[in-house]
Amino acid sequence: MSLFSKSKPDKEDVYHGLRLQILQGSRKKFGLAPAANRNEPWGVVMDWGLARGSATVTALSDGSASIYLSSGGGSIGGGQSHESIRKAAQNAVMLATKLQATMRATTEYPLPPQDQLIFYVLTDASVCSESASVQDVSSHRHALSGLGDAMQVIVTEYRQIQK
Asked: Residue 86's pLDDT is what?
């Protein structure tokens, strides 16, 4: 392979790059409005362990929302042009405000195993996380169930506009 050849990035590389961009980002980097305090969430990330890979759903305080698939593909930018996605993303960030106090600060961002979820709440002060099983969240047996539902609304709204 020549040093000057251009190769297409691998799907996994693109996925991991987009995921880390949000997890290691900042309010300023994304052009978000200043917060009342450093602990006010500006974003939420939900990583979902699937049978073959993973999915990442993101929500920002300005209503931006994206879905990244490790198998390739996804949806980016729907919150800018679709009110339903914008509202869903803003609702998820608002719900995260109530949950972050029970989460632990982290600087590591592993992907979850199959049938597990990891939620990350992004603030100016830190990134906080908590994990749970898909079954516990979807059956409303976990404190993160409301946030899981809110992130699923983003997925549903993207499916509705893509029909």
From this structure: 92
Name 128's Cβ contacts closer than 8 Å, sequence gap at least 6: 100, 103, 104, 105, 106, 120, 121
At residue 122, the pLDDT reads 97
Question: Which candidate, 122, 107, 30, 110, places its Cα nearest to that of 76?
Answer: 30
Residue 129 lies in a domain: yes
Cβ neighbours of residue 107 closer than 8 Å, sequence gap 6 or more: 127
Instruction: Flag whether 3 is in a domain.
Output: no
Helix (H, G, I), strand (E, B) or coil at 54: strand
The answer to whether residue 112 is domain-embedded is: yes
* Residues facing 121 on adjacent strands: 44, 128
Q: What is the mean pLDDT of each run of 10 residues along the chain (163 residues)?
A: 47 85 94 91 97 94 93 74 90 93 94 97 96 95 94 90 73
User: Exposed, middle or buried, 57 (CB in 10 Å: 0-12/13-18/19+)?
Assistant: buried
Is residue 20 a contact partner of residue 109, using CB atoms and an 8 Å limit? yes
Number of domains present in the structure of the chain: 1
